[in-house]
Design brief:
Layout: H1 7-18, H2 23-35, H3 38-47, H4 49-52, H5 55-92, H6 101-111, H7 113-122, H8 130-148, H9 152-157, H10 159-171, H11 173-178, H12 180-184, H13 194-218, E1 223-226, E2 229-232, E3 235-238, H14 246-262, H15 267-299, H16 301-305, H17 307-311, H18 313-333
Antiparallel strand pairs: 1-2, 2-3
Helix pairs in contact: 2-5, 8-10, 13-15, 14-15, 14-18, 15-18
């Protein structure tokens, strides 16, 4: 059954498509067309070809459809890369937290859907920015270079300038600023090169083994160290890559960063909480390794390397969470950074 259109509806559509108006009036008229059903607008465009050619109709129907097509092509472009990352790449570099980075980033964008809608309507009269186009092109060139050289790090990193440039070019600087955190948050899913990863985790492993040895030695435990091997009693404990705490650190950093972002407070308070993530997580990993050594000393290597070793990451999570909650409570009591 064909839809019925009242005369006032058609008159309103013709009014907003025929009258020349100021930028402020243009936004208000597009706000009406945005809320109006596409079916009614398309019906009127078919009935009156002159209205279909008007720039207001073009902005409300043709341009959004073109933008959707562009984003669809971007998704197709990056689909093989993300398929490879989700299937094996992140597991190879012990970067398993990256599996939830993209869904969280999309959720952060969805949380701002009302603000995004208003910014889009206000940006209708904005002109395209050349600098945003240069950022977009740099992202495309990075992607092509990474693809040709089979360099996953650069290919994945290209997503950041591409999203920034494309968002800015299509919707304006205000939109790119609003979505800056969800876009930058995607940096946490970029798999680092193995050389860089080893350069980070090796000093962390060495440092945690030294601190563990000194702490337990002060408590009169029979412990000694040879490189990355701790000898406690008759047991040897090798400080492997998981003992560095890097995986737990980056996972906690990813989660707590979102908590700090969506929590209430001034930028100063959020900066303090963010700066505390790394030292608290490292402290949690130190407690984990010390506990692992004590369990190995009292109950044997099987107990230390079994259930507790596999699930002791929860210890870091609890310590980090409690530490941040305590720090936030102290800041609130001191009235630091209240909004």
């Amino acid at each position: 059954m064909a839809a019925r259109h009242s005369l006032p509806d058609r008159e309103l559509i013709m009014h907003v498509t025929q009258k020349t108006c100021s930028p402020k009036e243009t936004i208000m008229r597009h706000r009406y067309l945005f809320r109006f059903s596409y079916g009614n607008i398309i019906f009127e465009a078919i009935r009156n070809p002159a209205a279909a050619c008007h720039p207001h109709i073009e902005k409300c129907i043709i341009e959004p459809m073109g933008n959707y097509l562009i984003w669809f092509l971007v998704a197709i472009l990056y689909y093989p890369l993300f398929s490879n990352l989700y299937n094996m790449r992140w597991d190879k570099v012990d970067y398993t937290h990256a599996y939830f980075i993209l869904p969280i980033s999309l959720w952060l964008v969805w949380r701002k859907h009302g603000e995004i809608k208003n910014i889009y309507l206000e940006a209708i009269t904005d002109k395209k920015n050349l600098f945003s186009l240069l950022i977009l092109l740099s992202g495309i060139l990075m992607f092509i270079f990474g693809w040709r050289q089979e360099y996953t790090f650069i290919q994945t990193l290209s997503l950041i300038p591409l999203l920034f440039g494309l968002t800015w070019y299509l919707y304006g600087a205000k939109m790119s600023k609003t979505l800056s955190f969800p876009i930058l948050y995607l940096l946490l899913l970029v798999p680092p090169p193995f050389a860089i990863l080893d350069g980070i985790t090796l000093p962390m492993r060495h440092g945690i083994s030294v601190l563990t040895e000194k702490f337990l030695f002060l408590l009169n435990y029979p412990i000694s160290r040879e490189g990355l091997i701790l000898k406690i009693g008759y047991n040897d404990i090798f400080m492997g890559a998981p003992c560095s705490g890097f995986r737990s650190l980056i996972t906690m950093f990813s989660l707590v960063l979102v908590y700090v972002y969506i929590s209430k407070g001034t930028p100063f308070k959020k900066l303090i909480l963010t700066s505390l993530i790394i030292p608290i997580a490292l402290l949690g990993n130190l407690v984990r390794v010390i506990t692992l050594c004590l369990i190995t000393f009292y109950f044997g290597e099987e107990a230390g390397q079994g259930f507790f070793h596999n699930f002791s990451g929860i210890v870091i999570f609890i310590i980090t969470l409690m530490g941040l909650m305590g720090a936030e409570s102290v800041l609130d009591r001191m009235k630091i950074g209240r909004a």
